[in-house]
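the two lines:
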Amino acid sequence: MQIDWLAIAPEIVVAVTILGVLAADLVLPRPLKYWTATLAVVGLTLAVVPLILMAASSVETRSLFEGSYVVDDFALVLKGLFLIAGYLVVLMSVSYIESDRYYQGEYYLLLLSSVLGSLVIASARDLIVLFIGVELTTGPLFMLAGWRKGDIRSNEASLKFFILGVLSTAILLWGMAMLYGVSGEVRFDQIRSALADPSPAAQPLVGLAILFVLVGFAFKVSAVPFHFWAPDTYEGAPTPVTAYLSVSSKAAGFVALFVTVYVALRDRVDIWGPGLWALAALSMTIGNLAALRQSNIVRLLAYSSIAQAGFMLVPFAAASVAGEQLAEGLAATVVYLVIYALMNLGAFAVVIQGARRTGTGDIDGWAGLGRIDPRLGVLAAVFFFSLAGIPPLAGWFAKFVMFRAAIAAGSAAATSLAVIAAINAVIALYYYARVAKVVWFDEAPAGAEPATEPPAASLALTLGIAAVATVVVGVFPAVFAVFGEATRVLLASG
Amino acid sequence: MILPQFLILAAALFSLGVYGLLVRRNAVMVLLAVELMLAAVNINLVAFEAALRTSQAVGQVFAIFVITVAAAEVGIGLAIVLMIFRNRQSANVDEFDLMKW
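prediction for all of em together
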């Protein structure tokens, strides 16, 4: 069998890095353990090289293993996103994990395994490959959430995440087994052609299968009403892990969902379209309302990420209830996903540094941070206003694309979703702006000295990359036009 | 082929699993409930495979993957339960309510 090695080169590089980190952790003496982090960063950087080569080459779609594993432009964009997000999270973790005095080597090993899983998801066009990818993404995260072994909050985060995680896996698998049962196939293109005209007796089973698959993925992306695990897990887990959970793992869940419903189940949009609509509307509304009354910054970001997941779903859900322009809807959702990833990682890096400066995760405890540490204060304002969607920061473009696609879809249900999104965007501004207000306009506690020591170099680099990306994308959104093209390819091939 | 009987068995096992997961207090019993659900999925896959007779026995391959992943997952789960038991001398799921809303 002919194998296109370039197509799976990113996965191979990451897999080799995982083994390298494992071996290095074995031989390095304790004071030199931070080299495992360096190795992880190098590996993730190297894995980007084959992506660039593939993006530059004239081959549009590389199909491996009889079509079970496809690398097209859609997969390339998302693999790039997963690698960059993984890279930023590793950078963010270095000083945090080092100060924790737990095992560093294993931390990067698990993180990289999760990144590898999300790379697989982006290319999976087969139920089995997709299932393996999803499990490889979430499995290591159960352990990372409980990383602070002695901390009972971290324990609790891990247990809650694990129980809900395996429940969702079982529900998802049940749906997948049903899909296999009604179509007799596991490959997405074959499932699609088999479902094109099923026997009338199989009709209820198809509906049930789609429902189970949808619920399984809704747990993974913590969409309301399947979100209860998220705030607790986010609060208890170490902050860099929370950043990863709210960005990469959520994005991986979304990608898995989109690939399944779009490639395999496109003809049954009448069943899953309304489901997505409800998930989007509920996630936005309930996520935002719950975020309003949070006093802890991590919990605020947890609910904010639930609400953002709702916003992300809006264009695709609007297009699918309208039953047309699915391609444009999906493209808008992917653009939103990428921008959200950059600004949310930045926000979490601010949270890590802010918690170190003020010694608390309470929002009120951050009063006057802008005076104590002006640079951090500016960055906090940048990322939180970007999440709120204020121009000229990247978030406005994400919101703009979202509304444009939702309104272009045209039907009454699509437009009403856009209206719900607009109301929620206003609500969200309140709690994002509150953070900026506390940081800049509240009095610093008496005796607070202006900070002198700079943040750890790796964390400063994370903040810098995220901030530059947020501002550049906001000012020159044209760089994102290329992503829109990328999703159209998936749509053509699928 | 008696497909419906197998599907009913699987559905019953799955429901038992969901019930156990929601009702059981002991974390180890919760893990058992999860295993029950995954076993139900496997019965489904193999039953469909036997009924459909696909050329490459995909259903059975899928079931083997599910078994493997389930083993890994329960390994993680037991590690988490052990860690919690060491810190709190209890594996009662209800006691985990430090964080709420």
